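Re: [help] complex structure
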Amino acid sequence: MNFSVLQFPASNCDQDVIHALRDVLGQSARYVWHKETSLGDADAVIVPGGFSYGDYLRCGAIARFSPVMQAVKQFADHGGLVLGICNGFQVLTEAGLLPGALVRNRDLRFHCEHIFLKTVTPDSPFTNKIPAGKLLKIPIAHGEGCYFADEETLAKLKANNQILWQYCDVNGNLTDTANPNGSLLNIAGVCNERRNVAGLMPHPERACEPLLGSDDGKWILESILAALENKIAAKAA
Amino acid sequence: MKAKIVITPKKAVVDPQGKTVRNALEQMGYQGVAAVHVGKYIEIELAPGTDKGAAQQALNDAAHKFLSNPIIEDYKLEIE
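Output below.
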C-alpha cells in the first residue's frame, strides 16, 4: 500500500511514522511537504505528530490552512482513509474533519508516558484488527490533549459509535486516574461520521517494536492495511 | 487604526490556567476573586485609509474562522 505522510514545519514524528510503515510493516510510504497540492497515488494519509508551525495561535490552527490540507480534505471527501496522530489529531479537528477540539491538559503539564487504551469498537478501518478486549499499551507525549466537545456533539459521537479509543487502567477500567489529560469521557481518539477519518492523541507509530516497550501500535496500522485490502478486493469483485 | 481581539475560553471548557491563577491570587492574599479566565489578546494594525466597516466584517470572519476556535473559545472584536 502507498502511504502519504504529511510534513509541516516542526512536524517531528513524520520519520517515526515512515519507519513504522516501511521498515516494520513493509509498506511504501513517502513524505508530502505542506506546500504540495497533491497527495499523489496515496491509499491512505497519515498526519503525524509534532508542533506544526510552532503550535502558534492554537495547535493545528495554522497547519489546517496549508495547501496540502486542501488536498487532504478532498481525499477524505472521496472516502480516502486519513489518520491523525497527536498534533495530526489537533490539525484534523481544527480543519473540521473531526468533531471536537483538544485543549490544554488539565494539570497544565506535558505528559510523556505509556498509557492503556480501550478500543470501543472494531467497526472502523482503524480498529478492525484489534482483538476484542485487547488493551493497547501506547505512549502519549502532549501538552494539549484534553478532548472537548459540547454535550450535543458527545451525544452524537456516542450514538454513532464514533469514539474509537478511551484511556483506561491496566484492567480496562475507565477511571479518572487513568485519564492523563482530563479528556471528556476519557476519549483518546474519535472518527468522523463516515468512519474514514480518525485521530488519536497516543502514538501508535512509537509502539511497533518490542524493543520500544510495546508493539501494540501495530494493531492500529494493521487495521488500516486490512481495510485497504478489503477495499481493493471489493473493487475487484 | 487598530483592531483589538480578546479571546477567552468558553465557560463549558475547563480552564486550568484560570484556576491556577485564581488559586495563586488567593494564596497571595487578594480577596474576593471568584474566578479567573485566561485568554489571548491579538492586536492588528490596519493600513491607513482602511474602511472601518469593511475591516469589522473581514476581521469578524477571520476571528470566527481562524483567530479563535468557536468550539472552545469566544471572542470580542473592537476597532479603534
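The first strand of chain B starts at residue 2 and ends at 9.
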